[in-house]
Amino acid sequence: MNKRTPFLSALIVSSMILVLAGCGSAAKKDSAEPAAATVAGKDKLKIETSFYPMYEFTRQVAGDLADVHLLVPAGTEPHDWEPTPKDMAAIEQADMLVYNGAGLESWVDQVVSGSDSKGMTAIEASKGLELIPGTEEEDHDHDHDAADGDAHATEAETGHEEEPAHEHEHEHEHDHGAFDPHVWLSPKLAIGEVRTIEAALSAKAPEHKAQFEKNAAAYIAKLQQLDEQYTKELSGTKRKDFVTQHAAFGYLAHTYGLTQVPIAGLSPEQEPSAQAMAEVVKFAKAHQVKTIFFETLVSSSVADTIAKEVGAKSAVLNPIEGLTAEDEANNLDYLQIMQTNLTALVKALNE
């Protein structure tokens, strides 16, 4: 995911113009309109979040104590999304920006470093988690040892507990772009991200620390229940390997002793090479794979092609990179989609 420096530089300039214009108009409104929505007479925190899982985790922790806004619109694939001048202005005026990190949001570093807002705190939710190296096209030697991932999951689950929130001049521990960013697809690691968000909110608004901790604990209990269900239902499946459209499920596979066989690399928009497709076809035939997983938000054509070639069916395994219009219409959330993913995996792994 390449950074587009000239484009983002222009956006930064444009956003500053919008911010100044907004400040002028806001001054006129102050005498006639009340301040932003309040809780017990105090202004709510204004929080921008990069994409859906960050929005959902932040919303669950913040509760009614913050206005939480989602930057990447529903139905939009977040890997190559970039902020508009309006988005830049919203970030500039926010109290916090919560993003996943690990290379997913290629625009964040320049946006944060170019911000003149001294009060905005940028929170990298994956900070402190042990990340899995990833490349744009995965190595298709599919004789992986899935058990190697258990150490990643165990260490990552506890890695956040003592990790302090970092301000917008944050230092990066990761070489962004070199790691798999899809940590939220492991419930164990999602717990770590929720804990980081809670710590950041408590540091930003210490008067609400007890409520943030209570909200986080309630949501973490649900994630722990989800983790236990994944552990129980995936431990006894007939097979441990699954074929998926792009390499989004590495952390899930590591956590639960499975092997992900991706057709393409970390970016869902990446077209796999002919050699990669041929190797997946060979693997699927040799291992009698009966389901090829595709995902929401991008075309299923590659997965459908391989499924047809090997006599398998295709089915959805959702990387939860954003909600579709159908998801929103059905009021689905992270926990419900993860339950659907588990059902799909158990069915495919027992065929």
From TrEMBL:
- The signal peptide annotation in the UniProt record is 1-26
Segment Disordered: which positions?
135-180
The name under which this protein is listed is Zinc transport system substrate-binding protein
In terms of PROSITE patterns, this protein maps to: PROKAR_LIPOPROTEIN (PS51257)
What are the leading ranks of the lineage?
Answer: Bacteria, Bacillati, Bacillota, Bacilli, Bacillales
Keyword Transport set for record: yes
Say which domain of life the source belongs to: Bacteria
Q: What does the sequence similarity comment in the record state about its family?
A: Belongs to the bacterial solute-binding protein 9 family.
Query: Which residue windows does the record flag with biased composition (Basic and acidic residues)?
Result: 141-179
CDD domains noted in UniProt = AdcA
Keywords linked to the UniProt accession:
Signal, Transport
Q: Pfam families of this UniProt entry?
A: ZnuA
Supply the InterPro entries for this chain.
AdhesinB (IPR006129), Bact_metal-bind_prot9 (IPR050492), Lipoprotein_PsaA-like (IPR006128), ZnuA-like (IPR006127)
